Amino acid sequence: MNIEIVTIGDELLLGFTLDSNGAHIARELAAIGVSVSRRTSVGDDATAIADAVREALERTGAVITTGGLGPTSDDLTKPTIAAVFGRAMHMDEAIIEALRQRWVARGWGKELPEANKQQGLIPEGAVVLTNRHGSAPGIWLEDERGRWVVMLPGVPRELRGMFAEEVLPKLRERGGPGASPVVSSTIRTTGVSESALADSLKPLESRLEGLALAFLPGWAGVDLRLTSSGRAAGESAALLERAGAELRVVAGQFAYGAGTDDLAAVVLDQLRSGGMTIAVAESCTGGLLGGRITAIPGSSHFFLGGVIAYSNEVKATQLGVGDDTLIAHGAVSEETAREMATGVRARYRADVAVSITGIAGPDGGTDTKPVGTVCVAVDVRGTVTSSKRQMIGDREEVRLRSTQWALDLVRRQLTATR
Amino acid sequence: MNIEIVTIGDELLLGFTLDSNGAHIARELAAIGVSVSRRTSVGDDATAIADAVREALERTGAVITTGGLGPTSDDLTKPTIAAVFGRAMHMDEAIIEALRQRWVARGWGKELPEANKQQGLIPEGAVVLTNRHGSAPGIWLEDERGRWVVMLPGVPRELRGMFAEEVLPKLRERGGPGASPVVSSTIRTTGVSESALADSLKPLESRLEGLALAFLPGWAGVDLRLTSSGRAAGESAALLERAGAELRVVAGQFAYGAGTDDLAAVVLDQLRSGGMTIAVAESCTGGLLGGRITAIPGSSHFFLGGVIAYSNEVKATQLGVGDDTLIAHGAVSEETAREMATGVRARYRADVAVSITGIAGPDGGTDTKPVGTVCVAVDVRGTVTSSKRQMIGDREEVRLRSTQWALDLVRRQLTATR
Question: For the whole model, what pTM was predicted?
């Protein structure tokens, strides 16, 4: 099966929005062995939409669109594509009623606004795809020759949910067995540079048996992605597993996870097996580290909380950092970081505590402590470790890299004391 | 002038890469008044590239491509598009020599590898575009009827540099004076639904004098974007200002900013004018609110810090929330939120405090307090306000929406008490 994706919206032609919907659909299709032969983006213009969809249908007979299903007047997708199929529109009272109930349940009012009623209009003979994530339903429209267009909303969260729940199962049914999906696996590393990794992985490259190896650097570290294509699924899986295991050995202590593992989740798993709790003390990251940890469902079993100690007074009064420490070494020092960690661990009665203090910029740097200077400390039941580092990047990147580095120090300490 | 963008690369069809190059070119073209009528992405496949470029040329006569200019064997752009124009390829010795010098200067070796020599092949009659940011030169190819294709490399840094230095100046020349750039302005709202906004803005639509109005919903609220095209720059600016002012009046208290303003920055500005400090107490958001506030440079003048009170024990011991309150009303209640806010304000000696407690999901919901139940409270120098709401979305969205709502309550309280 060969599919084209058509994403719709003026914001795509103006470059206001990255086409993350098109990329998401492409990824999901590749994973089930369906190939995407072309992606097209057009604006909120009936002629442009009709042309793009008609051409794509002629080439492949299978098209997925996103965008243009909302209640506002620039949402043209449904009537335009209905016209391409020569179908009239009719009002689906069940959709209107579901929209009305949703509206009332949310306490937005008793009557559905006129603008929303347009969302109940669907092409004759279309299958309505349920939207559990928002108001605009999706549409599956197919002609007598079996050519079809699936219309999905442009809001990314709605699109992702509907694609998984309503579209993928139907495509799997149609696809049948024997497809050769593009499969990839990722090993996540942190604390090592791309070129150092590339050098140490060089001897391995000849043994990858045709798998593609990509280095993907970001603030979380360098991800190593292996990709297999043109093979049966079982063969790909075996190859990826073998090669992935070899990569992991070479990456050694720098490898912390696979796929989309978040280092915060890895650390929570370590706490779970050790039966330990954790608390945080954050200065320059201002809560980002706590925010990352609590992004993981179930973190409440191990994460007690923390202190955002942005001002020196809060460091002193709420964490017990000594005035003498702040005067002698400054707020950004390993000494202060250590007292922040031990302070929050004692006050929150946690087994483990981690602290971050640094200069995220753009201002606040000095000759001896330039922007990007960051200190972290970890206290595991009274054993305190600390470290200082010069981070690269802008304010946001320094802060994100700092949370990653702090989590990695926790991971290494928990690994060492296991 | 009307242009199409064709981006080339298997990774785009597999969804591994977001098409940031296409978006960048679109943005840059809009800013000089050139409209993009379609964007297409195809894989590293000669037939697909030829078809896409030929079709785009037929529609507009003006095409910009990215990708497929590198030294590897899957880089097919140049010979394929040369064939579309019926042109032969020839070796440009000047390119080879420049590549060789670059190679030697970088200390990569004395001789250019054979693979790189392919980069010296250019179509007959093409203009070579200098690449100061990498090795692959760009190509401007034009036929006797004035139809042209510009080929640029796919590495984003190289693309951006070359587009600015080599392409924009030439397009400006061709466009001549009197070009009419696409200009937009955005008004940010929060706390109101897209359809309610659309209803209340309806009477205004006829008075927008041809400006396009787009509703852009997200977790932060609904952005209203006005776009002007086909006008002189000065006229656009005046129209946008007048219409923007009218929209702001109708959006009323829901409008909090313009452009890419973050609500956290808006609140910091209010604190600055009031000479006030702020502290936070976060349960379900786990530090995200502090993280957002401290993302703003200079926030340290007004933000003292906060307590991440994830466990009930921390709420009691670190914020002074009464055991009786927790037992009678539960951790997710306006009562608890109020005591969290007053508790952190007193302990951190802040003028203003804001608290969040809620059930972010996916677990932890009950019949009376389902997932998405969130309470916030604001304490401005002893005057406490609180509110309870049912948030929609997954864990991440509930948490993000909660930080936005809490900041909005601070904004409204500070506006009211000013």
Answer: 0.81
